[in-house]
Amino acid sequence: MPGDFDIMQATSGVYAAAVLELAQQAGQEDAVDDELGSLRELVARDRTFSAFLASPAIDRDARRESLRKLLSSRLSPTVMNLLLVLNDKHRLALLPHVCDAYRRMLELHRGQHRTYVTSAVPLTQAQRTKLVETVQRMSGFVPILVERVDPAVLGGIRVQMDDKLFDRTVSSRLRRLRAELMAGVDTHLHIGEREFFTGVA
């Protein structure tokens, strides 16, 4: 449900903001980002670990102790404390979302912004450089390109940043042309219909 998703996003953002503040105080923003990224990958890759985090059958205190034994030597105190707090609040299912929210907040703090780019073929380095310069000039942010290749766009490029969409793909132009042609056909049909009935009347 949209409401539940919004609450989940907001809650994840609260945890991520707290972690970012602690990481900044310790001068460990990048190290914490790396650790959270590794945890995010582990949850996605390892079903056993993911089930261990999510299972309601595992006692909270027992899981806390297991987390300490498994990860305390590998994680910074900041990230370890995050895991323990999420466990104590029965919110470990939020971990991937907290990791994502932390990354977004860190990027925004640095004046960076994720920009999603879709093209029919992979961008060349020259195209990539020009795109970064153009987006930065237009938005004031340093774009972090997230590239996707989709042959269905046929050619050109589609760029999305938040709610802003710049679509210069061939497929988009063809859709617009098709819509214009259909609108023209409908207009001519209606005109012809009016003329016919006017003549009959």
Short description:
With 201 residues, this protein is α+β, with helices and mostly antiparallel strands. It is 67% helix and 12% strand. It is built from eight helices and four strands.
Please explain how this structure is put together.
This protein is of the alpha+beta class and 201 residues long. The protein has two domains: 2-108, N-terminal domain of the delta subunit of the F1F0-ATP synthase (Peroxidase, domain 1), CATH 1.10.520.20; 111-169, no CATH class. Helix content is 67%, strand content 12%. It contains eight helices and four strands. It has helices at residues 2-26, 29-45, 47-54, 60-71, 77-88, 95-109, 125-139, 170-200, and strands at 112-119, 142-149, 157-161, 164-167. The chain has a four-stranded mixed β-sheet with strand order 2-1-3-4, with helices on both faces. β3 and β4 form a beta hairpin. α1 (2-26) crosses α2 (29-45) and α1 (2-26) packs across α6. The termini are far apart. The model is unreliable at 195-201 (pLDDT under 50).
Task: Supply the key terms.
Peroxidase, domain 1, alpha+beta, 12% strand, 2 domains, 4 strands, 201 residues
